[in-house]
């Protein structure tokens, strides 16, 4: 279950048409090891349904931490550097139509089913 007080980091991703599978495969193959980090609560990568003509964003990510301090510790860690580095091997065209920018939120209210998050 999500705590009432939490820190959420979000990214919006604009992906070039036809590159959705590359983007999803890249995320699925990442070595993030987030679950091993102090303060990590959960991660969600969301695929938009319908048109993205209004803002061009086709994916959203939400990473929930128990505090802003835990998030900043992760951002300063080798784990962060490793999970955000380009892997070796064949360089492919970037799937990004525009680069994501992190936006952070302080969670203040959670409502969920008994067996939900």
Q: Helical percent range?
A: 10-25%
Summarize the biggest pleated sheet. 5 strands, antiparallel
Task: Give helix and strand order, one letter per element, not per position.
Answer: EHEEHHEE
Distance between the termini: 4 Å
> What is the strand tally?
5
Strand coverage percent: 25-35%
Instruction: Give me the secondary-structure category.
Output: alpha+beta
Structural write-up:
This protein is α+β, with helices and mostly antiparallel strands. Helices cover 21% and strands 29% of the residues. Strands 1, 2, 3, 4 and 5 form a 5-stranded antiparallel sheet that branches. The radius of gyration is 15 Å and the shape is globular. The model has no long low-confidence stretch (mean pLDDT 84).
Task: Summarize this structure as a short list of keywords or feature phrases.
3 helices, alpha+beta, single chain, globular, 21% helix, 5 strands, 117 residues, five-stranded antiparallel beta sheet
Task: Describe the secondary-structure layout.
Blueprint: E1 6-15, H1 20-29, E2 40-47, E3 59-65, H2 68-75, H3 78-83, E4 96-98, E5 102-107
Antiparallel strand pairs: 1-3, 1-4, 1-5, 2-3
Quick overview of this protein structure:
The chain is of the alpha+beta class and 117 residues long. The chain has helices at residues 20-29, 68-75, 78-83; strands at residues 6-15, 40-47, 59-65, 96-98, 102-107.
């Amino acid at each position: 279950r999500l705590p009432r007080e939490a820190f959420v980091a979000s990214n919006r991703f604009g992906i070039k048409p036809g590159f959705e599978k590359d983007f999803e495969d890249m995320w699925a193959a990442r070595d993030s090891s987030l679950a091993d980090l102090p303060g990590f609560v959960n991660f969600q990568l969301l695929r938009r349904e319908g048109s993205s003509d209004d803002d061009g964003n086709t994916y959203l990510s939400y990473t929930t931490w128990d505090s802003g301090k835990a998030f900043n510790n992760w951002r300063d860690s080798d784990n962060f550097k490793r999970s955000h580095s380009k892997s070796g091997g064949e360089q492919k065209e970037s799937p990004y139509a525009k680069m994501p920018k992190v936006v952070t939120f302080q969670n203040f209210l959670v409502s969920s089913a008994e067996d939900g998050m």
